[in-house]
User: Fold this.
Amino acid sequence: MKRSLGFLFVMNLADISLTKYLCKLGATELNPVIKHLLGMGFSWALLFKVVMAGLFVVSAHYLHKKSTIVKPLITYLNLFFVTLIFYQIYGIYLLK
Assistant:
C-alpha cells in the first residue's frame, strides 16, 4: 500500500510539472482551480497539489485498514494518473 500511495504522490507532481510545460507550449489548462493557481504562479499550483495529494495519501494510509474501498480507489487513481501522464506526453509531442 505504501508503494501505491507513494506512486500516486509522484504522479501528482509529474502532472503539475507537465501541465506547466504544456501551458508554456500553448496548451490550455482545463481544471479551473489549477488554471487560476497557475495564473497566480507555478509555486501556488505546486503547493496546492502537494498539500492536496499529501492529505489524500496520509488519509488513505490510515483508512485502508478500516475500509475495503481504499485499495481499489488507489489502484484506479494510479491508473488514471498514468493515463493522464501519457496523454500529456502525447500533447507535448503534438505541440513541439
User: Anything to note?
Assistant: The CA atoms of residues 8 and 77 lie 7 Å apart. The chain has one domain: 2-95.
